[in-house]
Amino acid sequence: MRTLAVLALLARRNLWRNHRRTIIMLGAISVGVWAMIFMTALTRGMVNEMIKDGISALPGHVQVHHPAYRDDPNINNLLPASDSDITQTFEGAGFKAWASRIKVPAVIMSERESRGVTLLGIDPARERELSFVSYDDVEGRFLKDAEDSGVVIGKKLADTLDTGVGKRIVLMSQDPDNDIADRGFRVVGVFHANMESFEETYVFAGKATLQKMLRVGDRVTEIVVLGDDYRDVEPVYKKVRDRVNDDVEVSRWFELNTYLGAMLKVMDGFVLIWVIVIFLALSFGLVNTLVMAVFERVREIGLMLALGMKPVNILGQIIIESMLLLIIGLAIGDLLAWATIVPLQSGIDISAVAKGMEMMGVSSILYPQLRLEDVVLANVIVLVLGFLASLSPAWRASRYAPIEAITKVY
Amino acid sequence: MLLRLVALTLAATPLLLPGTAVTDEVQRDATAIVRDAVNHWRGVSSYSEMTMVIHRPEWERRMTIRAWTKGDDQSLVRVIEPRKDRGNGTLTDKNNMWSFSPKVNRVIKIPSSMMGQSWLGSDFSNKDIARADEIIDQYDHSLLSVGDIDGITVYEVESIPHEEAAIVWGREVLRIREDHVVLEHSFYDQDGELVKSLRSLEIGPMGGRTVALRQRMSKADAPEEWTEIRIVSIEYEIDIRDSLFTLSSLRNPRD
Question: What value of ipTM does the predicted structure carry?
């Protein structure tokens, strides 16, 4: 124990002997650690937003469809059960939120333009918690009920079609007999979404109105169910599975949007690789510093050996030196990262590059996410790998023959 | 609307007119004027050969087409010239529409998503061609004015689509002669701005009736871009077998 204290004292004093070199090394380590944590927090935030937006567009964590619907979102692929039966089974089953809806591809036409859209027949009362549209942030108004004869379209779509609140548009789709089903609707509201692609793609209409237009009676194409946490969908999945027959397909969100699912999985690997890559760059500096420190002190080390210090203690001294360097660097880097992330947690506006980010499904405000696991991972990796990297100079120092070392001429 | 097109070219002989006294005519409400114009060709069969001219400032393209119509919901159109388009055809039956191209040797049912697209590259949309009879019951008609051109009474009728009708226009204005020739059909957007119009540029006798020999569809904001249909020959009240309006006949011309 006393040897250790002496070694630590020696290590500390040695570090401070060439304080300029030590400070530069500390700076390098701090910046490296800061970059590891900060970048990880940014990417975490980005992926988190992507998943949140992705799920809100689906929406829900678990969905039920006709087995063929996902390959061919056709009005023929309706759920076999009637909507009233579905309501009976799902209502009061303790889901955070659920809704049955009609979702079909359609064409929207104004006097001047026509566009392909995803037409959603919804019951607005049920969708309030599910929808990515905030009902109060709608120009005009949102749908009143499932019988509402108006439609709500996105801002971007309204601009493209040269239409707006109060004007009529025509929606065209197909009925189960493959005949054209169309109808005029008045635009009652224009919604804003944080993704332009949502504003372009989604058109909301009353469920009952669409059932009538598409001549499908009391049937729907999908059931969406929201659970408590998107990371843990199994309980909700099981509960839904128990409530439906075997002739339908129940899917979790990462099966519905495999891109998002894969993204979440890739993320953990990405963080590890990122941390290791930065450390590799850092390790050259670290090893170089230690090699220099050893090289400068060959005579001193020879003397200590000659006076009877065990080689293992020389090894220990160098390693303690390196650990001291790393721990101080880590502390500064962690603090730096925390100090930069916390003020940014209310969101970073990246709307200047929003178009490009949107292609990846990321909205224009980035919320960095500081997670304890990521910080611990970065610190542990730096310490462990730093220890391994300092083994070689330390080993060399402990292997000097005392006579040669003492007589070494610089 | 192809049916409408052919129909609009149709004019009745005076004998077919329900009333002759002008005062009676004026009393008729706008709906009746439109209904009569439409009824006039309901059940009428026709065979015509037309030239379709698609005009753009940089280029112009001509097609010779043959069209058969029967009643208000069956029609078959075939391209004769230019040679590379020969055999392309369109069949409509009720509100359904199929197209056939010999190059791919396949009949395609035009899905709703393609209804807004251009028909044979012209200024007419597929929807214009497929829809026939909605003009009567999907609109509220009102008589705007009664005028007189060269001694022929012309009614100006404003048609406003019903709230739930699948029609994008704010209103349409038709100018119909008392002998049921439609002089002009204008489409306005919901701000009251003219978007496109179909006008009869030449009216004359053919096939034993007075018809619009040349009709032009043009967009208001691009007057240099238009499509004209010129009638080369037309026959009315001919015997057309029902088998003509079938998918197999669309695929294999037997005429």
Answer: 0.75
